[in-house]
Amino acid sequence: MRTNIKLAWRNLWRNRRRTIIAISSIVFSVLLASWMRSMQEGSYDSMIENSVKFYSGYLQVQDTAYWEERTLDHSFKAPDELKEKISKIPDVTLVVNRIESFALAANHLKSKPAMVMGIEPGSEDQITRISQKVKQGRFLKTGDKGAILGEGLAKYLGLGVGDTLVMISQGYHGMSASGLFVIEGLLSLPNQEFNNRMVYLDLQTARDFYSAAGLSTSLVVMTKNHYEVKHLKKAIEKILPASNRVMTWTDMQPGLEQLIESDRGSGIIMLGILYMVIAFGMFSVVLMMVKERSREFGVVHAVGMQKSKLSVIVFFETIFIGLIGCSIGVLISYIFCSYFYFNPLPMSGKMGEAYEQYGMEPYLFFSLKASLFYSQVILVFLLSVFISIFPIWNIHRLKITKAMRS
To answer: Is the pTM for the entire model greater than 0.90?
Structure first.
């Protein structure tokens, strides 16, 4: 076997041009497939991150009845001990209280339904980077009695920084809620629906407004990325009381997950077509190699080498080409995708505007998830092994006289 491997290795470099062409076809195949998958998964990661970090968080701890009705009556008291236990779970990066409800926002002439979110300003900013979206005025500080709101809502109501916002709503257990809030800042939010309806208050100010002392509608749990969500859900469920449950971003935003899965399905179809093109390209290279070496195969068989031994040597040659091509391909792919990972491609014109309307940054993002690269290597390598059947079959059909005359 060692002799066969040595012969196969030496055969590769007897005709360097042919070997380099074969390796190059595999390198290009791995690069193209990896680049396509990295761009696709990077776009999904960006979509999830924009949606999750801006609103729902990766996970939320809620009262068991809250999500179906989403009213303050299903708020709960989140003890510090529970927050501490959750924050100590590996991969949890942040645990934040929120209180969410609705109100009628008004000035002296106009009114509009608004979504009110009570937040812990410092912690919330770590999740959403919302302070970077303040275009006028300033961001909230802990203990502030004022509000910040979306520019669209402020424009509709004709209000600016320093003006007074009037809000009327229903508080906890039917209590009347009304208040006057000085506008501390205006936000430019990428999602137009939020931009036209969102009002942020300090958590304690929101609790006072809704007569919900010490209550929260949710505990938002953050992690490094959405790949950690499933095992975190299981870990959190073990420490929750019976009156609470934990929901993941997929539970809270099933539409987003369905959109991604449907697009991923179409992407896999495109990838399948790409692999068909790759397979035919690799096959044409192998076909060229076999036809060029017909006389060589005839000569070595005529001098006594058995067809089975010749087949094994050619098989090892194909394996070597596949291994070398895949190794170089994954290295170049990783370097190539790493550049675009740190330097996303900007989207301009109508496409950029469409991205911004859906609350996404107008860039093409890339992913460096390891499975994207080694899966392409495995698939392309398996293709090369499958294609190696052709030269083996060709050798077993070899006619010495015809091969030596070719």
So the answer is: no
